[in-house]
Design goal:
The protein is α/β, with parallel strands linked by helices. The chain contains 5 helices and 6 strands; from the N terminus they run βαβαβαβαβαβ. The protein has a single domain, classed as Rossmann fold (3-Layer(aba) Sandwich), CATH 3.40.50. Helix 1 crosses helix 2 and helix 4 packs parallel to helix 5. The chain is globular and about 35 Å long.
Length: about 170
């Protein structure tokens, strides 16, 4: 059974999708491999600082990298929990089959799934990001100055006073 985690022990994540990354979908690219390792190191350092619960938005790209890094951490630290913040039912409907399988595997492996709304709307991703920030004290982000959801999430986190750890892709 999952008990609600307090924001002071919770970290959320926001980051770019593959199209905004220098290596795009090539996860074997050394830069991508290095980023994944850095995300693990950050999650582990946050654990050492008292973070126990991690929230991920489950989008392709950096969200999934972060989720997988935290799952690796959870294999080492039994008190780590992972929450999938799902913006709407059918989040993965338009994705290719490989991404859909990865998404289903990751969501199933999370300790908790929070569905923000049943139907897709233009602002459902924004609502998901706001939920994650409002339930956290730390935001980890992979951000390369592109306008979009990650930038808005960073600005909202700043407004609410979260600690922000920014990683450049």
């Amino acid at each position: 059974m999952f008990l609600e985690a307090a924001p002071d022990i919770t970290c959320c994540f926001s980051g770019h999708r593959p199209a905004k990354l220098p290596w795009r979908y090539d996860e074997d690219d050394p830069r991508c491999v290095a980023l994944k390792e850095k995300l693990f190191d950050i999650a582990d350092a946050l654990y050492c600082a008292g973070i126990r619960h991690y929230i991920c938005g489950m989008a392709p790209g950096c969200d999934m990298y972060f989720c997988e890094a935290v799952m690796r951490l959870r294999d080492m630290r039994e008190d780590v929990t992972i929450e999938a913040a799902i913006p709407c039912e059918g989040q993965s409907n338009s994705w290719d089959e490989g991404l859909k399988r990865r998404y289903r595997r990751l969501v199933a492996a999370c300790d908790k799934s929070t569905l923000l709304q049943s139907e897709y709307t233009r602002d459902c991703m924004l609502k998901r990001n706001m939920y994650m920030v409002e339930h956290s004290s730390v935001l980890v982000t992979v951000y390369g100055e592109a306008i979009g959801g990650t930038m808005h999430t960073i600005n909202y986190a700043k407004k609410l006073g979260l600690e922000i750890i920014e990683v450049r892709p």
